[in-house]
Structures are given as structure tokens and as C-alpha cells.
Design a protein that fits this description.
7-stranded antiparallel sheet
Length: 176
């Protein structure tokens, strides 16, 4: 029998070095029904909804941010936010834990009890997606060679690629 979507999700989380606690189990188990088949989790945090005090998870995927509360009225509450609708996300730390505030349209989603390091990483990942143009999230046509060269240039400029890696990738693109 093939691997289940839940196994794939657990593997994705492991690769991201995210180890959800037992309190997040119900929310994690709901993810296969919430995520699209090819949607990837880029980061996930767990904490408490500041208003209801319920244990929740907040997942950032390559398409949207999802808030999952399995304790909601004995059911499941799922809210998703497109990155283009998020106006700001910030975190505040206190001792070992942090809180995250997300401003979406006229609403503020407040989560506390998040690990300090996790909150920082989560906000950084979400900001990365917030800065991307809307077209990024639509099924876009193949990038042109020029687009790919531009992308490589940005990766080199930001220090992700070394001069040598940049030149190798550039050579490969131009040989196509």
C-alpha cells in the first residue's frame, strides 16, 4: 500500500525540523483533508488562540496560510488566508514563548504560547510569501530563460549562490 497523505505531511514536517506536540495531533490529522494534493507546508507552528484559549496550529504553505482549531465546538474550524490579504505579521517574545499577531483585512488573528524560535521562523517564511506577486500563486506558465537568469542573479546577490554555483547554473540555462 502506498504512503498516505498524512505520512507525506509528517515527513515534510520532519524535513523542516518541526516536531508537533501531542496537543497538535488532532489538527495535524486534519491536514490531509485541508491541503490540496500538491500543496507543500513551508512552516508550521502550534500555540493557543488568544481569544478561545484553544490549542491550534498555524500552517504556512506554498499557497496560503491556514489556521486549524480542532476543539472548536467539537468540530473543526479552518480559516485560510491568501498571502496577498495579509497586511502584516509580527511576533513578540517573552521569556521562552512568543505570540504572533496577523492582520488580515479588518481582522487580527492572535496566537500565543508559540516557541520563540518557531515564531521568528514562521513570520520570516510568511513575509517571504507576502512579498511575492499575486501571479506567483497562480498556475503560471514555465519561466522563460530570462526570468530564470534574473532569479539566479537575485540568488547570487543575496548570497544564496556562490559565484561558481551561479556560473554553473547560468551555463546550464543557456545550453537549453
Amino acid at each position: 500500500m502506498g504512503r498516505s497523505r498524512l505520512d507525506e505531511i509528517k515527513e515534510e514536517l520532519e524535513k523542516l525540523d518541526i516536531n508537533p506536540t501531542i496537543f497538535a495531533r488532532k489538527e495535524i490529522h486534519a491536514l490531509p483533508d485541508i491541503l490540496s494534493a500538491d500543496e507543500k507546508i513551508v512552516y508550521l507552528v502550534e500555540g493557543r488562540n488568544k481569544m478561545t484559549k484553544h490549542h491550534i496550529i498555524l500552517a504556512a504553505t506554498d499557497r496560503r496560510m491556514i489556521f486549524v482549531d480542532k476543539e472548536f465546538m467539537y468540530g473543526l474550524k479552518v480559516e485560510d488566508f491568501s498571502y496577498s490579504k495579509i497586511s502584516s505579521i509580527q511576533y513578540e517574545t517573552a521569556l521562552l514563548l512568543a505570540s504572533i499577531d496577523i492582520h488580515v483585512a479588518d481582522d487580527i488573528v492572535e496566537i500565543d504560547g508559540v516557541g520563540k524560535y518557531d515564531a521568528e521562523l514562521f513570520c520570516a517564511r510568511v513575509r517571504d510569501f507576502m512579498s511575492r506577486p499575486e501571479e506567483f500563486f497562480q498556475n503560471k506558465p514555465e519561466l522563460t530563460v530570462l526570468d530564470q537568469l534574473e532569479q539566479l542573479g537575485r540568488l547570487k546577490a543575496s548570497g544564496v549562490l556562490s559565484e561558481e554555483e551561479f556560473n554553473n547554473q547560468k551555463k546550464k540555462l543557456l545550453e537549453k
